[in-house]
Every structure is written in structure tokens, then in C-alpha cells.
Write a structure and sequence with these properties.
Layout (H helix, E strand, L loop, with lengths): L1 H15 L23 E3 L6 E9 L3 E9 L5 E6 L2 E2 L6 E2 L5 E7 L30 E10 L2 E8 L5 E7 L5 E8 L3
Antiparallel strand pairs: 1-4, 2-3, 3-11, 4-7, 5-6, 7-9, 8-9, 10-11
């Protein structure tokens, strides 16, 4: 009887000190992210031209950044069965279990002179994402009639978020974050 009493006392003290606690009734989202996988868009147009495309890795997501010379306008980012080239509509081969078509409502050429403001060194591998947790391939789909499109192959249909940031200077950035998990 003394053993049971001592055991109960130890359990009560452990609960009181917070050493034992019941599990959560609901599962928390991954890294606190509450994004979805449905299309995201803003229909505004922009004369700001694309000047660079880059990617980065973060603890909870992989990031694609499109640098713009001027104020960011609209975008259309959505999962598709295949990414197609601007103008021709020809499909682009991409690695991955799912494909995001990323369209910035900005050209990759100067509107006044028609000269390119961004041309990837390798259209099939705009950046090297070989060691990324979610990204599998970033390919150039072209720039046509004021729109610039990229194909982003990802591991699976995962939640993503799209937003714009001001700067640096008078420039801006279109940012696409794709979560590592649901």
C-alpha cells in the first residue's frame, strides 16, 4: 500500500511540475504554416522588368525570388499538369512530383528598348536546386507580351505562399515559398 501511495504522490508531483502533460488534442500545422495549395493571383500589371531569379533554402520551406526593376505588379502561381512555354504553348519537361507555373505580370525585357533585362544562362536549370528539400527543378518558360513565366518542379503538391516585397532601392521582389511538408 505504501508503494502505491508513493507512486501516486510522485505522479501528482510530476503533473504539478509540468513533467507529465497530456498530448495535444489537435495536430499543429507544419512549422506553424497555414498555407494552402490552391492558385494564388493578383491581376495587376507592371512595367517593372525582371532583373534576376534566385532560390534559397529555409528551415520550413524553399524560396523562389524574382527580382524586379521597379514596383512589383501581379502574378499567377498555380499547380498545373504541365508547364508550357510563353507564346508557343509547348510543354516544358520538369523533374518532380508536381509542377508550379509561376507567372510574373512583368516582362524580362526593357519596354522602351526591347532589350533583355534577364536571360538565364541555362533555360532548363535557371538555378541549381539539386540539394533542396522541396524544389526539384526551376526552368525558364519565357517572357511574352509583358508576362514572364517559370516552371518549378517540386517534390509533391505542397502548400505555398506568394507575396511581394519592396526594395532594395526602387526595386521590388516577387517571392514564392513552398513548404517542405503539409
Amino acid at each position: 500500500m505504501k508503494k502505491i501511495s508513493a507512486w501516486l504522490t510522485a505522479m501528482v508531483m510530476a503533473v504539478g511540475l509540468g513533467l507529465l502533460a497530456p498530448g495535444s488534442a489537435s495536430a499543429a500545422s507544419y512549422c506553424g504554416l497555414v498555407w494552402g495549395s490552391l492558385a494564388k493571383s493578383n491581376q495587376a500589371m507592371s512595367a517593372a522588368s525582371v532583373t534576376n531569379v534566385r532560390t534559397g533554402q529555409h528551415y520550413c520551406f524553399d524560396r523562389l525570388v524574382i527580382d524586379l526593376k521597379g514596383k512589383a505588379g501581379g502574378y499567377n502561381v498555380r499547380y498545373v499538369s504541365k508547364v508550357v512555354q510563353d507564346g508557343s504553348g509547348l510543354p516544358i519537361k520538369l523533374r518532380g512530383g508536381a509542377f508550379l507555373q509561376v507567372t510574373a505580370h512583368s516582362p524580362s525585357y526593357d519596354n522602351d528598348t526591347g532589350k533583355a533585362t534577364f536571360t538565364p544562362a541555362n533555360r532548363s536549370e535557371v538555378t541549381n536546386v539539386s540539394k533542396y528539400q522541396t524544389f526539384r527543378q526551376l526552368a525558364w518558360a519565357g517572357s511574352f507580351e509583358g508576362y514572364t513565366t517559370l516552371g518549378l518542379g517540386v517534390r509533391a503538391r505542397l502548400p505555398f505562399k506568394v507575396f511581394t516585397l519592396a526594395g532594395p532601392g526602387s526595386g521590388s521582389r516577387l517571392v514564392i515559398d513552398v513548404a517542405h511538408h503539409w
